Amino acid sequence: MTVSDVSPLVNRPIDLLVLEGDGNNTKTHMLQLYVLDRRNMLSFKSDNDEVLGRVAENSPAGTKIGGLPVLQAASGLTTVPITYSIIGGNAAQAFELRHSLTGDVLQNVTVSDNQAGVDVVTAQVLDREENARYVLTIQASDPIGVNKAVTNVVIEVEDENDNSPVFSQKVYRFVVGDDSLEGDNVTTSWKRFSSIGKVEATDADGDKVAYKLATPTNYLVIVPQTGDLLLSEEPAEEVDLELVVEAHDLRVPSRTSPRPAQVLFKFKPPESSKVELDLDLQELAERELHRGKRRVTRAVRPTKRIEFTESDGDTDGRNVFQLEKETDRETFKIRDENPWVTVDPNGAVRVKKKWDYEELGPEKTIDFWVTITNAEKGGKSIFNFSYTCVI
Known about the structure:
This protein has 2 helices and 29 strands. It has 391 residues and is mostly beta strands. Strands 4-12-11-6-9 form a 5-stranded mixed β-sheet, with no helix packed on it. A 5-stranded mixed β-sheet has the order 15-14-22-21-18, with no helix packed on it. The longest helix is centred in the C-terminal third of the chain and has 17 residues, at 281-297. Keywords: Calcium, Cell adhesion, Glycoprotein, Membrane, Repeat, Transmembrane, Transmembrane helix. One of its GO terms (molecular function) is calcium ion binding.
């Protein structure tokens, strides 16, 4: 600590010799001091100790960090050349400094003009998935390195949709009814619309992922939001299917998985028991007839996905889509109550409540099931529609 006025020592170096003794031994230490005039100490021209800037990932080297002012340090009484440098937080040398007037880009930039300072620029292409945030420490110093000032600069790397969803497996194997076979999921008992397994893909950008079956089938449907595969119809005989599933992220524009997943599905119906073999021919015929009718009523048409804008659903009662009939005797009815749409018997899909993009959830979809009754055949089938609202 000081014990008297040190103003006569301003701008003069001082060498102090300090003795350290522990009773038996004595050590000497040389301490160098430099007294600065408080009015002439360097400081950055900023009201904050920390400033925030942003840059998009994949920007080319030399891109100026957005949102940052020109960094300038100054002293009160005299004007001297000031050297700026990055002394901390510059992982992998990702950033450099650029003279605000001359445009020179260096690790250390010396500025002699009172109107000049430095900008922070990228030194390489940045990847947000590797590092999303940097905190740089910028130092300004006089030519002899005595008068110094520091400030912190926070740089956030903004995300771009530069990654596509990737499946966790190339091939998925699902088995229903035969526990002697190996698979990712083996089910010996089932019911209609129960899950027989699921596929999964992840997006390195952190985006949500939706799934769709690229191979149409009446036996399975996929839940777009989860990747669960549902058994929509019980096959009458042993079935082996090879399906293709695609995944895409929920961004605009969207990216699709570069390599779809392959799904191998095997269904083996249960073997007849001894009791069933003892049934008389009439009862067996009745069972087969009932099973045939049941198969008719379980027909499932392929899932449809249609894109709309939010403005398409801005009027209650508006007809936004017409379901297609295979015969004139078909009538339609929505299976479960839906807050956004209703379905008329003639297949007209109408707005029930004005569509609000923000209330649709992260997937921005309106999903509903429709029961189709065929008066001519006396049966019913299920049709799944998925509508996507895009602004």
